[in-house]
Amino acid sequence: MPLIQIEPEIKITEKAANEIMQIMKENNVPLDYGLRVGVKGGGCSGLTYTLGFDVEQKEADTLIQTNNIKLYVDGKSLFYLSGTELDFTDGLDGKGFVFNNPNASKTCGCGESFGV
């Protein structure tokens, strides 16, 4: 069956992709690993974002390739993250990854949790 190319449900900015590659290099993470992006219950707004490297795609994962990065996203997380852009900031307000999530109807002051 031929593969159908669709637009990624989650996008990574070039700045975030460069930071991910730098972190992989500094921590000797093999280039064939993917970035697992997800959500879990918790935080002051109900849900928190998760990021981590994973050696392989799990059976229920969606694989998204964006900006030369493989993303592994489980179905529940994809529901909450669809349309999200992962960015990286190193400005005066702090340094770190930022989730620009159009599904979030509320966020906490620190930006690490959200609600829908």
- Using the coordinates above, name the CATH class: Mainly Beta
| Apparent shape | globular
Strand ordering within the main sheet:
4-5-2-3-9-8
Q: What fold name goes in the CATH topology slot?
A: Hypothetical Protein Aq_1857, Chain: A
* Unreliable stretches: 1-6
CATH A-level architecture: Sandwich
* CATH homologous superfamily (4th level) name: HesB-like domain
Report the structural category. alpha+beta
Count of DSSP strands: 9
Gyration radius (Cα, Å) is: 14 Å
Fold and architecture overview:
There is one protein chain. The protein is α+β, with helices and mostly antiparallel strands. It has one domain (11-115): HesB-like domain (Hypothetical Protein Aq_1857, Chain: A, Sandwich). It is built from two helices and nine strands. The chain has helices at residues 14-26, 75-81, and strands at 11-12, 34-41, 47-54, 61-66, 69-74, 85-91, 94-100, 106-107, 113-115. The strands form two sheets. The chain has a six-stranded mixed sheet with strand order 4-5-2-3-9-8. Strand 2 (34-41) and strand 3 form a beta hairpin. The chain is globular and about 35 Å long. The termini are far apart. Mean pLDDT is 83; it is low at 1-6.
